[in-house]
Amino acid sequence: MASSGTTGKLEVDVEIKASPEQFHDMFTNKPHHVHHTCNDKIQGCDLLDGEWGKVGTIIHWNYVHDGKAKKAKEVIEAVDPDKNMITFRVIEGDLMEEYKTFLLTIQVSPKSEGTGSVVHWTLEYERLHDGIDHPETMLQFVKDVSEDIDAHLTKPN
């Protein structure tokens, strides 16, 4: 659930068939391939500065959210390969029109039973004012993107 006031935190878990390492690798080392898995949602990802998967790297995303073409410039704030975790901080783009800060953390863990993984998304943000909605539609967006990536990673050759 969203927090009160202008700051908030939303979380969602998505069960996938791919391994934690496969999914983490897609966002950490191959985000420029994400649009191949869900081009109706992600149109592209470009490396602006740094190296894929490294803290401080700046990435530019073109995506469609709520039926509108949008852009986001993000910096990789944290990477933990042992936990299959990466955190992006949005520094420019459409989200910054409504949010003072916006962080997305993706952590992938093995399922406790059976095969596959659980992708845990955390969205942490500060809205510019109380009239701005909490970004609940982003939860469905990241869930849909996760499922599309999983389908790509687990499809038979």
Q: How would you describe the shape?
A: globular
**H/E element sequence:** EHHEEEEEEH
- Helicity, as a percent range: 10-25%
Work out the radius of gyration.
15 Å
Mean pLDDT: 94
Largest sheet: 7 strands, antiparallel
Question: How many DSSP-defined strands?
Answer: 7
Multimerization state: single chain
**Proportion of residues in β-strands:** over 45%
What structural class should be given to the helix and strand makeup?
A: alpha+beta
What is the CA–CA distance across the termini?
A: 39 Å
DSSP helical segment count = 3
Unreliable stretches (pLDDT < 50, length at least 5) are: none
Kindly report the spatial arrangement of strands forming the biggest sheet: 1-7-6-5-4-3-2
List keywords for this structure.
157 residues; single chain; 7-stranded antiparallel β-sheet; alpha+beta
Fold and architecture overview:
- The protein has helices at 20-28, 34-37, 136-154; strands spanning 7-16, 42-49, 58-65, 68-80, 85-93, 99-110, 117-127.
- The protein is α+β, with helices and mostly antiparallel strands and 157 residues long.
- It has a seven-stranded antiparallel sheet with strand order 1-7-6-5-4-3-2.
- Strand 5 (85-93) and strand 6 (99-110) form a beta hairpin.
- The chain is globular.
Briefly, what is this?
The chain is 20% helix and 45% strand. The protein has 157 residues and is of the alpha+beta class. Strands 1-7-6-5-4-3-2 form a seven-stranded antiparallel sheet.
